[in-house]
């Protein structure tokens, strides 16, 4: 905890003063341009990877960057998606998977999750990803297929479907490689994005 409190002190002393004007504007305006759905993994920091400022991204982080298909039941992920699209009017949605993902590794390698029943239940949202992956044990392939499956799941949300139909939002699937910093765009023809 000491590291965190020292970090807050450094932020208040060194960072905030240089960005005070930005934070003053952000206090009354919330207009992110992108909804970024990434993994909860602490090694994946959306703002760092994308070089964005506070206020640029509306971020949802879930284990395995999973996006449950739309359901009328109350759900924090669905509510955040709906708010970002319908209320904030984001123009782009990125689903970002990453190398060495613990959730995808557990699925690809068939880890025993009986000691983590809530995790096991959550990872059922990756069933379509597993069905799309060619071989068991291939974590990188499952990570990629999972990103694509989550994009399909995202499109089941009414706010997203309406925005897609109206040409108001674009979906992007990325895979971030932790050891190299490269980002592979699965939804665009062309080379990986350099770090």
UniProtKB/TrEMBL annotation:
Its EC number is 4.2.1.1. It catalyses: hydrogencarbonate + H(+) = CO2 + H2O. Keywords: Lyase, Zinc. It comes from the Bacteria. It is an enzyme of class 4 (lyase). PROSITE patterns: PROK_CO2_ANHYDRASE_2 (PS00705). Pfam families: Pro_CA. The keyword Zinc applies. PANTHER family: CARBONIC ANHYDRASE, CARBONIC ANHYDRASE 1. Catalyzes the reversible hydration of carbon dioxide to form bicarbonate. Belongs to the beta-class carbonic anhydrase family. This is Carbonic anhydrase. The lineage of its organism: Bacteria, Bacillati, Actinomycetota, Actinomycetes, Streptosporangiales.
């Amino acid at each position: 905890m000491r590291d965190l409190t020292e970090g807050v002190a450094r932020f208040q002393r060194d960072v905030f003063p240089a960005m005070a004007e930005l934070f003053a504007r952000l206090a009354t305006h919330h207009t992110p341009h992108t909804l970024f759905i990434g993994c909860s993994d602490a090694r994946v920091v959306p703002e760092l990877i994308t070089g964005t400022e506070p206020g640029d991204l509306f971020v949802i982080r879930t284990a395995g960057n999973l996006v449950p298909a739309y359901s009328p039941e109350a759900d924090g992920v669905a509510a955040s998606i709906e708010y970002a699209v319908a209320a904030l009017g984001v123009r782009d949605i990125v689903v970002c998977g990453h190398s060495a993902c613990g959730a995808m590794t557990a699925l690809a390698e068939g880890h025993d999750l009986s000691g983590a029943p809530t995790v096991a239940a959550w990872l059922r949202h990756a069933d379509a990803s597993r069905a799309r992956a060619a071989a068991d044990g291939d974590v990188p392939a499952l990570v990629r297929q999972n990103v694509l499956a989550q994009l399909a799941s995202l499109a089941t949300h009414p706010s997203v479907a309406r925005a897609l139909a109206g040409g108001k939002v674009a979906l992007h699937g990325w895979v971030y490689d932790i050891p190299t910093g490269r980002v592979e765009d699965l939804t665009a023809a062309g080379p990986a994005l350099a770090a």
